[in-house]
Write a structure and sequence with these properties.
The protein is of the alpha+beta class. It is built from six helices and 24 strands. Helix 4 (about 250-305) crosses helix 5. The model is unreliable at about 5-15 and about 365-415 (pLDDT under 50).
Amino acid sequence: MKMLLCLFLYAIFINCLIKEFQASQNYLFIEIFSDEWLDMKIEVAENQVIMSQIAQESTQYLSMYYKLKIGQQYKLDIFLFPESNVTIQELPYKNCPNNCSNQGICQNLQCHCQTMAAGDRCQFEVVQLYNRTQYSESLKPHQTLTIAVFYQQSQLIDDQNQTRNFQIQSSSSIDSKIYLLQPFEYPQSNLINSKLIYDGQLTSIPQEIDYSFNFQRYHIEVSYFSFVLVLKNMNSYKQDIVIKYQLLDNDQKFQDFILVAILSVISFIILLIIIYIVRRRCQYLSQSKIIENQQEDCSDNIIIQLMPIVNPVKDQDCIICLDPLDNRLCRQTPCKHIMHDNCLKQWIQKQLTCPLCRETFNDVEYIPKIFKSRNQTSNTLILSNQGQSIVQSERNSVRSMIITRTRQSRLAVFQ
């Protein structure tokens, strides 16, 4: 049954080892190495019960100490992921993992790293950058990169005794944590939350970081502060990055603020001008519509006024409303047809043809003879018809006053 379980786990890329032995030391030491940055895991099972396990994401090394009783017989199922560079041995006592990388010193089962190394076993060599503004690197899948950017205290503080913000950007998106370390503080033991000034993704958009809350002035002006960048490639493929960084001048920030303020004011003024122009345009269109409607009503009234009032003929009906013509104001069209005055007004609003014979009302030949006289003071033309006068501007002819728009869109509702 155990063999079948191990074969199944092996099929899904988990290495399963069965180790039978009699313990001669106090610990069984298990470790995994890898050249790639992988998620690693070690599990130790005894009698099909998991007794101990450890896991770590995106690492090149993982180790475990399994407690033994000297002289006791053991049959252990050891599950390893990934299956690469596995070492299993018995040891009399615990030691620091992998004897501490980068010349780290093992003390009290902990690796004490040299100045520019980090990690629980000093596996991260810190890249040191002085007097530079950019750095490029190619990261393996899931690799972690640690960079220390150094500035003198005099570079971090301006003439107004204020800190200059730290601006940073990356050519491609990458997870990052940035710490500010005081002089003589090193990454190995100081990458803690109290030193953290940024936690998030760096992108091609410059990120401005205000670290004044975490800055403490040092008594030696030429001492170096360090911005420690911990970058992690979360992708399963190789990633090339270019990191650009600089300290911002407060004068430049003030100039940028003034520029933004000026552009905002100019934009607001332009917006007001656009609103004013649009409003004036709407008012103009509204007034034009009113004037057009007034001219239409005026033209209709002119046509009506040019039609004489007559006495209705008895026993004759209005062709529009079909009511008798008696006892109501009636008018005669140029084509000699008699209709109610109100009916005729409503009809003319719909179309300019006679409802009976379909002859047009806008033909000058059908307009009664008018009397024209010139008023030298007002420079107007007086039109009179049967004691009624109509004042019209000299600029337009009688035809243009009567017809001011095309009535093709209006259909006769009384047909």
